[in-house]
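Study this one:
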Amino acid sequence: MQMPRNPFTHALAAQQKQLGLWISLSSPFVAEVTAHAGFDWALIDMEHAPNEYFSVLGQLQAFAASGTTAIVRPEWNDPVMVKRLLDLGAPGLLFPMIQSVEEAEQAVAATRYPPRGIRGVSGAMRGNKFGRMTDYVARVEQETTVILQLETQAAIEQADAIAAVDGVSGVFFGPADIAADMGKVGQAMDAEVWELIRATVKRLSDKGVATGTLVLDPDFAAELLNDGFTFVACGTDASLLAKATDSLLATVKGKLT
């Protein structure tokens, strides 16, 4: 059995526009509801959601039956977590709060087997179909998506050097935390925040670096993809459910006499 090609990794390398969805409700059943919508990628969140390894596993299984590539955001840049998530078969990882080139190198190293990294070796696990993939060790490095999230002004100042670290598939900007770092907590859509992000994206895109973010405005998501961003998540399962239920209640109440 051969390791399958990861379409998201290769789409980022080719700077093909990729639409994504944030998954934070920590339910395999909810994940299955969203899996067949047709998004290019989805992010299963462990940093700001009550996910554990088994809930992540169930969600990976739900997305595996679809055409959407589901990657995982671990809680931290922790090689033990990375090892376990890759063994679970995560096709890629988004590392939060990368602050330096050294941290970027540590993130990449956690996804690589020795001598190129520090990932521990397991003979039979879900990632290699329990030992059935004969080319897993040879190909996993080129197929695994490694995205680094920049969330402060200090990190953005080092964006070019961080993006240049060997093995980085793309750079992701967290507007909410960037805004907080700029003294604008709760103002993720502030013009100054996006002026900083978009100027950095322009510079990185010109160098062939894939860049991404998460926004909840579908029009703004399209605007960003049309203006140099490579991969953008345009909503979250939690926000979509909240808005839909609020709208439903308001609509029915508005028709009562």
